[in-house]
Amino acid sequence: MRWTPTLAAVLALLVAGGVAACGGDDPTVQPAEQQPSEQQPTGATESVHHIHGLGVDPRRGTLYVATHTGLFEAARGDQRMRRIGDSAQDIMGFSVVGAERFIGSGHPDPNDTSSPPNLGLIESRDGGKTWKNISLLGEADFHVLHSSGGRIYGYDGTQGRLMVSRDGGRRWRQRTLPAAIFDLAVDPRDPDRIVASTERGVFSSTNAGQGWRPLRDDTAGLLAWPAADQLYLVDGQGQLHRSGDGGRQWRPAGSIGGQPAAFIAHQSELYAALADSTVKRSTDGGATWTVRATP
What we know:
Elements: H1 7-16, E1 51-56, E2 63-67, E3 70-74, E4 82-83, E5 90-98, E6 101-107, E7 121-124, E8 132-135, E9 142-148, E10 151-156, E11 161-165, E12 173-175, E13 181-186, E14 194-198, E15 201-205, E16 213-216, E17 222-227, E18 230-234, E19 239-243, E20 251-255, E21 260-266, E22 269-274, E23 279-282, E24 290-293
Antiparallel strand pairs: 1-2, 2-3, 3-4, 5-6, 6-7, 7-8, 9-10, 10-11, 11-12, 13-14, 14-15, 15-16, 17-18, 18-19, 19-20, 21-22, 22-23, 23-24
């Protein structure tokens, strides 16, 4: 049985809701064609503007929120988001690698006139207070970043390419994609096995993106894969689906209550950011959700 709404309707909701958009980009632009925003807010204001990514510190339980105007945090037990550092750089792709260690990408603070428009892969080892470039400065803008050990997968929105690194992001190999992607997830047991949500549906690869097999052509969304038998997809309407076999069969798992802006799993918990910048958390596989953080 095919899901409803249709894939076209799901994609329209995802793009309009800012999932694939880069800051203030035209929401009709497809992922592979997006360019850096030309109108960014100036200065490090306290406002949370366009959430692009989420992460949780494995040691302290702090929630990190990557946005169009910088990085924010909400400590364990605290619902209020607070800015980290002074930079208002546009953080697109974002992933927590370890305690206070992050990787990211995007565009520089509007007041930074010395950096190129695309930051390539950047890294922070002090909880987001400072960042340094690792590779591809001026060459890549990763809209999606996922790490698994020393392996990093990145979707470069400037050229619509999937890049794979086996040494923490210093050297990369380019892979061919079946279509422009919205998100991807890595099998927690096998870093070579990935699932990608694209504008043509959901695909899987067992060889780190060198070859692809279609799974579904009727839906797309954001992905999280916390355990071998727990692959989640949240579609453009906020409906959550779960697969126990790596994406071949799916069943309804709940609703996040609105259009998704970002979606991750941390251990047994799910986190979803909505278009209004509220971040919700589920501890029961998506059946129920509570507010974890607000701007």
